[in-house]
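Saturday, quiet lab. Running sequence design on the structure tokens for the scaffold JK sent over.
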């Protein structure tokens, strides 16, 4: 029995080897479908996890952006610099309106070689947690303590190649700095060098792409530009700042909570109270991330459906490749019948051939998905600072693998049925 099975397997393998181009093209089609489906399934769940944990331990975000979702994407994930400012007086009003656990002001708008700058208070690096339950950790140096000191996120430090003690100049806006050699760079604040005093450990959040300075430094930069536009020149310090210079673009708020709990009974009340102020936008970051994925869920489902169609098309390709090959293999099938192979055995060998193509394609597809996942994770980390687990979900992988093999077996039924009905006498007639 084992020898018979081994002989059948050898026949199937030699049959595949006799048509290398057709075999490997069909395997590649299956691998493409499997790889695409697994990458989309994996990225969907991994991206959701990365965004949900990326909002950190913030309960509320106050901004002047057009909508809560835009506020979260700009203020926490650095999609763009917020366009509308908030006055320092408004910040003090909000801070004094409730006994917040902390109320951290932030300002965005400058950059270095395309990496965004976050001007903020020292509390941002001591009380705000980029990942809830995981405080900032220093890889080197210290946190900023005085004006014109800068601390680098892990991705910004790695991408820029900056080291402790180096001096840099920030660019107004999000354009590349002149140090990067970009002729289209924005205005560079050459009058005020910043010294790198610290580099942070990776957090797996978008904050890894940012550079952090104190608010007063940022205000002085822009006050200097304002004074130049007004025709005033010379040195400038904190005493020269006006209320028009003391602007921020966001406020991170956290309410008091019970030990071991992240929820606050006052959340909804304070959220509703702040929303009554039409000059600001109030967002619950975690809620906005859920809304974002609800918005894109239909598109997400469309991509997965497209991948499934590609997989079904691959199964059709397996069927056509085997069915067409049967026309050229009727004599081979007839010889096997003369040598004692039953119709059922012939049928089984053709289905086995289809199964082997499906299994090879599925195995190759898993490799494609792993490579694609690593590439997608690397791009998301470098562009958005999000750490995505490129690994494949075992349950989803097993389901896709089993489905692919089952589809391949089904695709082999029609060619096997054709082989089953090969007329022996007619197929063995001498050809002219």
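Result came back. Writing it out in full:
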């Amino acid at each position: 029995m084992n020898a018979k099975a081994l002989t059948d397997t050898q026949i199937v393998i030699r049959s595949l080897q006799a048509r290398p181009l057709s075999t490997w093209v069909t395997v590649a089609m299956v691998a493409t479908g499997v790889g695409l489906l697994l990458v989309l399934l994996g990225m969907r769940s991994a991206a959701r996890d990365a965004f949900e944990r990326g909002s950190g331990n913030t309960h509320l975000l106050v901004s002047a952006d057009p909508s809560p979702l835009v506020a979260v994407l700009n203020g926490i994930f650095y999609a763009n610099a917020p366009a509308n400012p908030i006055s320092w007086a408004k910040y003090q009003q909000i801070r004094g309106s409730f006994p917040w656990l902390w109320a951290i002001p932030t300002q965005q708008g400058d950059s270095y070689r395309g990496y965004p700058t976050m001007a903020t208070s020292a509390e941002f690096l001591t009380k705000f947690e980029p990942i809830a339950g995981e405080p900032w950790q220093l890889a080197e140096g210290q946190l900023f303590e005085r004006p014109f000191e800068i601390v680098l996120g892990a991705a910004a430090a790695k991408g820029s190649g900056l080291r402790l003690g180096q001096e840099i100049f920030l660019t107004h806006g999000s354009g590349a700095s002149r140090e990067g050699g970009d002729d289209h760079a924005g205005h560079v604040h050459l009058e005020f060098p910043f010294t790198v005093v610290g580099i942070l450990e990776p957090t797996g959040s978008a904050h890894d792409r940012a550079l952090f300075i104190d608010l007063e430094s940022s205000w002085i930069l822009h006050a200097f530009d304002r004074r130049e536009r007004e025709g005033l020149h010379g040195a400038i310090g904190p005493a020269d700042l006006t209320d028009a210079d003391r602007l921020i673009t966001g406020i991170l708020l956290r309410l008091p909570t019970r030990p071991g709990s992240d929820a606050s009974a006052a959340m909804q009340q304070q959220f509703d109270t702040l929303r009554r102020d039409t000059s600001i936008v109030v967002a619950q970051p975690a809620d906005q991330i859920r809304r974002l994925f609800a918005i894109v869920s239909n598109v997400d489902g469309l991509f997965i459906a497209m991948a499934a169609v590609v997989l079904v098309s691959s199964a059709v390709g397996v069927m056509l490749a085997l069915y067409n090959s049967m026309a050229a293999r009727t004599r081979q099938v007839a010889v096997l019948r003369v040598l004692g192979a039953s119709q059922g055995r012939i049928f089984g060998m053709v289905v086995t051939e289809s199964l082997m193509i499906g299994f090879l394609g599925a195995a190759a597809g898993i490799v494609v998905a792993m490579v694609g996942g690593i590439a997608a994770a690397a791009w998301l980390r470098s562009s958005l600072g999000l750490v995505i687990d490129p690994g494949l979900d075992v349950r989803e992988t097993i389901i896709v693998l089993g489905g692919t093999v089952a589809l391949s077996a089904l695709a082999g039924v029609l060619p096997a049925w054709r082989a089953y009905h090969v007329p022996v006498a007619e197929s063995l007639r001498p050809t002219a």
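Notes for JK: The first strand starts at residue 60 and ends at 63. The chain is about 55% helix and 15% strand. Ask whether to fix the surface positions before the next round.
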